[in-house]
Write a structure and sequence with these properties.
The protein is an alpha/beta fold. It has 7 helices and 12 strands. The chain has 2 domains: about 35 residues, no CATH class; about 180 residues, Rossmann fold (3-Layer(aba) Sandwich), CATH 3.40.50. The chain has a 6-stranded parallel beta sheet with strand order 1-12-7-4-2-3, sandwiched between helices. Strand 10 and strand 11 form a beta hairpin. The chain is elongated.
């Protein structure tokens, strides 16, 4: 087995022109490290180069085009009522598994006595999850969700319905900006274990080229946008 491995790796080295000159290999390694450190920005579509208000409008338009639903609330304390209204209108169970994020658990849930709220990682029997989002990307109407103790990744995929709370102030234009923001928040050389990009509900067209929602994750994605810019979450 080790002989086969060496033959495969040797073929790769020869194809890449490596392994014959230690100095050349060291220079190539240095060039790769420098390229990663330089964080060169990729092309930025013109449609995402907008002022903040227009970025939020574009994000909402793009998210709706991908079958997500979007509502606005003026302040964070309006989130519980918006959740209750959505579940009632969609005839969904009033049970919500909430991310153990202090910004979400501190919301006035007691004002909605018909809602059954629990926190923690999602299980298969949880019908609805509620999480925050690190950012929204106007370019494609995409949410960036980062993992962590207060953001269990299971909440993004196991429940049939995913409700996401997003501040308008956390909507950026292009993908390049959201990576800059993540690096600034986490610190140089540090990243979350998992970063998920979510654009609309889960879907597939693998079966007879017919779109099926909920194939690999939530069947519904509902976004609650907090318009006030100086609030958390």
């Amino acid at each position: 087995m080790s002989g086969d491995r060496e033959r495969v790796l040797g073929s790769l080295r020869r194809a890449l022109g490596r392994g014959r000159d230690a100095a050349a290999d060291a220079a190539a390694h240095t060039a790769v490290v420098q390229r990663i450190a330089s964080r060169q920005r990729g092309p930025i579509p013109a449609r995402s180069q907008l002022d903040p208000v227009q970025q939020v409008e574009l994000f909402e338009t793009m998210a709706r085009e991908q079958a997500a639903t979007v509502v606005h609330v003026a302040r964070g304390d309006g989130v519980p009522a918006a959740v209750a209204d959505y579940l009632k209108a969609a005839n969904l169970p009033p049970r919500v598994r909430v991310a153990p994020d202090a910004a979400l658990t501190a919301l006035p849930w007691d004002g909605q006595p018909l809602l059954e709220i629990s926190t923690g990682r999602a299980a298969a029997e949880d019908p609805v999850s509620l999480t925050g989002a690190f950012a929204g990307i106007a370019e494609t109407g995409t949410l960036m969700l980062r993992s962590g103790a207060s953001h269990p990744t299971t909440l993004n995929f196991l429940p049939d319905v995913h409700i996401v709370v997003l501040r308008a102030a956390d909507v950026v234009g292009p993908y390049e900006d959201v990576w800059d923001r993540l690096r600034a928040r986490e610190g140089d050389g540090v990243m979350p274990r998992t970063v998920n990009f979510v654009t609309g509900p889960s879907r597939t067209a693998d079966i007879e080229q017919t779109i099926q929602l909920g194939a690999h994750g939530p069947r519904r994605l509902h976004i609650i946008l907090i318009d006030e810019t100086d609030e958390t979450p």
